Amino acid sequence: LAGTLLAVQPWERQQGGCISSEIFHPSTGKLFLSCPTTTLPPNTNSGGVVAGGGHFVLRIAGQRRGAARFPEISCGGQHGAVLPFSDEDASIETLSHCSSFSDVTSVADEGGEASEDTAQEDFQYKLKGFIDSTVDKSAKTRQGALDGLKTAMATRILYEFISERRMTITDSIERCLKKGKGEEQRAAASLACLLCIQLGSGIESEEVFKSLKPIFKNILADGSANIQARQAVATSLGLCTLVAEDDILDVQATMECFESLFTRSYARADGTCPSISPQMSQLHVNALLSWALLLTICSASQLKGVLKTHLPRLQRLLESDDVNMRIAAGETIALLFELARDIDSEFEFDEWEELCNKLNALATDCNKHRAKTDKRKQRSVFRDVLKAVEEGDFQSETIRFGTERMTIDSWVRKRTYDAFREFVGSGMNYHLQANEFIRDVFELGPPVLVDSATMKAMKIPRFERHLHNSANFKARTKARSKFRDKRVDPNKTKPYILLCGADTIWNTPQAKWLCGVQAHRNVHTQSQAHEL
């Protein structure tokens, strides 16, 4: 207990007593202590004999690591002397008094219910402290307060608490965006987006976004502003517009704001690519992804204009040196093809064949000057993009949360899910379960309430989960085997002949050169050759 903030609450009066581990309940965080009022200095041991007559309950009030240490906590009134506790002081009389609590279980149960309310009060008190600290003079303190609010909103549903204080939080965000720098602006932009997610689509979030939208657009258009702040604003503005914007014309104006950024990465008229710094390229990537997110709520007439204007030029971004730009452009192209086919099932693109050739080259990219991780990530994405463009197919994915499952079965849903997950992070599954707005976006219906006993009964045994995962792993390996690189080092394997149709391919560099084909992509291991 040394240096820990304690709150003293009245309890029934008893005579004598001590601080003892036998009467400390970790589940409730309470200590039974005998004295009218108590002062615990930081050097107090785990127990002590207290001079006094009244029996009190001491509750640990949530002192956290890194918080300020209090040299002395006094509860007022006449102070009782605290003496170091030792085994000699633990007399039979004291022990019999400690065991005189006849119904310890009932006390613990009552304390358990009270501890939940107390924990909620402590949590809200901490949130109020964060809100107050967002206007502190210290930039470090403001940054910590913004991060604390972000973590709370990403991991809990706080609609009632936030709704009452939304304008106060909005004012703090506005102040941090205007006067802050770098990381503080990034945190404020992310907090604005989480605030809209908590409030949902309605008048409250519209009021918040109406105050912040001009500031977002000013930062985004200001070339002298911090580049990291502009990157964060580009992402936050897109999702805030999706959540809180009620006018489709304003949505279109925001999309034009994004277009003014990522179109700078388009190839020039002579076919050359502009020279852009990595940080500026990331800003263009964020703007492109936010623009693609807003495409999902555009009307058919707007989509036709976008297809005519941007689809021919977007494929030029596939030649960018930035792997993130290539991937963002590929996913946006797949999204546009999906939306176009929803409008017109017979949609045709004039440069379709050229586009497919580029996508196929990226899906099988083997350039040595690119990093292995970049190539691996790029090939995985562009295989799916190529299927979407050629066949209109999508590799579906199932998200499990609690007792429910959600299928990501389209590029529209994938772009929306990725946008929310970027802000909510690890709390996405919790929001899918409890956040009514996000459930409406993904058409999951009202939240499903399941108690812990039902959850435990529905849990699949560990051995069955292992069998299920093994079967999935085997099926996935077979499905992906045709896309994997089957090259072997000819110096480490014995030469053998593999018959492939009418062609005879030797596992030697000379044979590969004579055949004039990439024979190494068709050669299996020796054991597989025997099986064939």
UniProtKB/TrEMBL annotation:
Gene3D superfamilies under this entry?
Leucine-rich Repeat Variant (1.25.10.10)
Domain Interferon-related developmental regulator N-terminal: where? 94-390
Q: Where does this protein come from, organism-wise?
A: Gambusia affinis (Western mosquitofish)
Give the Interferon-related developmental regulator C-terminal domain ranges: 435-487
GO cellular component term of the entry, any: nucleus
Q: Which domain of life is it from?
A: Eukaryota
Protein name in UniProt = Interferon-related developmental regulator 1
Family of the protein in this entry: Belongs to the IFRD family.
